[in-house]
Design brief:
Blueprint lengths: L10 E9 L4 E8 L8 E3 L17 E8 L2 E3 L1 E3 L4 E4 L6 E8 L8 E3 L3 E4 L1 H4 L2 E2 L7 E5 L11 E3 L3 E2 L8 E5 L2 H4 L4 E4 L1 E8 L2 E8 L7 H19 L11 E8 L3 E5 L3 E7 L16 H15 L26 H18 L5 H17 L8 H6 L12 H4 L5 H17 L6 H13 L12 H12 L4 H8 L7 H5 L4 E5 L6 E2 L2 E6 L2 E7 L4 H5 L6 E5 L2 E2 L4 H8 L7 E8 L2 E8 L1 E2 L5 E5 L17
Parallel strand pairs: 1-12, 18-19, 19-21
Antiparallel strand pairs: 1-2, 2-8, 3-7, 3-11, 4-5, 4-8, 6-7, 9-10, 10-16, 12-15, 13-16, 14-15, 17-18, 20-21, 22-31, 23-30, 24-25, 25-26, 26-27, 26-28, 28-29
Helix pairs in contact: 3-4, 4-5, 5-6, 5-9, 6-9, 10-11
Length: 606
Amino acid sequence: MKKPNKKNAAIAYTIRPKDLAGHLFEVTLTVPAPDPAGQVFALPAWIPGSYMIREFSRNIVQIRAESDGWSVALTKLDKHSWQAAPCRGELVLHYEVYAWDLSVRTAHLDQGHAFFNGTSVFLRVLGREDGAHQVDIVRPDDAACKTWRVATTLAELGAKRYGFGTYQAADYDELIDHPVELGDFALATFKAHGVPHDIVISGRVPNLDMARLSADLKAICETQIAFFEPKTKRAPMPRYLFLTLAVGDGYGGLEHRASTALICARADLPSTATPKGEAISDGYLKFLGLCSHEYFHTWNVKRIKPAAFAPYDLQAESYTPLLWLFEGFTSYYDDLMLVRAGIIDEAAYLALLGKTVNSVLRGSGRNKQSVADSSFDAWGKYYRQDENAPNAIVSYYTKGSLIALALDLTIRAKTAGKRTLDDVMQALWQRFGRDFYHGAARGVTPAEVDALLDEVSGLKMKAFVERHIRGTADLPLAKLLAPFGVAYADERKSAKPSLDVGLGRDGADAKLAQVHEGGAAHLGGLSAGDVLVALDGLRVGGQPANLDTLLGRYQVGQRVTIHAFRRDELMSFDVTLQGERLPGVTLTLAAPGKKGIALRRPSAAR
């Protein structure tokens, strides 16, 4: 009888919440037929979708190895990696992971729930990443956890749906792309074009209206599935999971191939106590926009990927100049899908779009950094913003979304509505995304994106790309929107005196969080971090309204004396007040009643 090949046996993990109050997961990793030269293990340094080196290995509290009951020496190779001494038999690692980061990126454990991403808890077995992996998720010993369930899109092996037990993945990349939630959670299921979609809400949410949430998400998901596959309406995954943690105050999301991890304020979730017919709240709209954004990533970045991410290098930065496409275009379509799904009307959409325009125009960094450079520098700049960020960088999310808008309007106008940005996204999907997990795992290069824009639109887009994507020129949105019946107006309050700063708090006093370049405070010598004491001898105090009230007694052009502490030194500054420099862009329908901006042909091609 032929002996089984241990090298083909699955890499096996067992994970158990060991100490809820101490926030410790206990993990056991079993490696059949380890490398005879000494097996090397490494924990990822970052998680795909969040472009910052996070050094997850710092949360490994203790680690040891054994084989056939004998201790095996481990040598630390660097901050992420270990090598076991050579051994003949099965190699088993035992380690503990500290989990106390309440975010969508890492792991969190307490008496209320447990959450983890594989990148935070599953050491990678070098040389065996392409083989089968499995994980046994074990219920905590605590009696209070008897009713806990498991929510994940990992494929069940021995476990039942939502149960503790064994789950499986085809390889390491798949293993770490399915976050896991343990606890008592609210659960609802709906189908979008035949595919089961589950909503899991962890955290206390009185009167949670799951019926409304399910109906709204169903509309959004079906709209997006049909967007990428208009003929077949086939989703790229067998099931999908919205994994949501509701807290007092929070916001964030992280995309995965068949799920998303979300965190939101419980007040943003719909309530059964809300009167019927009441307008959608800003908080709920923000949450649906987040869901729409992360769901769109199922196609755009999880399957259509930049070449630098195919495959990921999880131990070091993976640089790409294309995040304006993968995050920016996703940011364009997230709110647009709310309109197409019938969640909001065009006026509400234009209000959201106006906020994005103002956000981009607020910072002078847009004149210094292109979205292509912002994408490439995400690791060191966008994800590591300091007090000078508004003056130094531009967001590839927000300006990227406006670039998508400008491209969409340009293509629609110049082709008389025969082509749109939708056609570009569908072409990207068909050529680079549809078969990504089916033997054609190749990402798209910047040159291929440029060529595809020209090909699909039938236009020469090089000048646009060089000016607005690789360059820093502002987008001519007023001109582009006009043929579609949308009026662009900037109603900034230039007569209102201002220091042009962002305020924070320092105890009972106001602290300058940002000082905008060219503003009154900057020209007067004030700096971020200065604590405002008095304006012309009157105390400023810690509330932003206090400063506004004081400034309201002056006119633009007047000089005032500001006393402020810089570190422990009291300083005096003579400041000439300027008019308010906050952008005040509003977008309104100049021709109400016409069909939506995203669907309507222009009145005349330009």
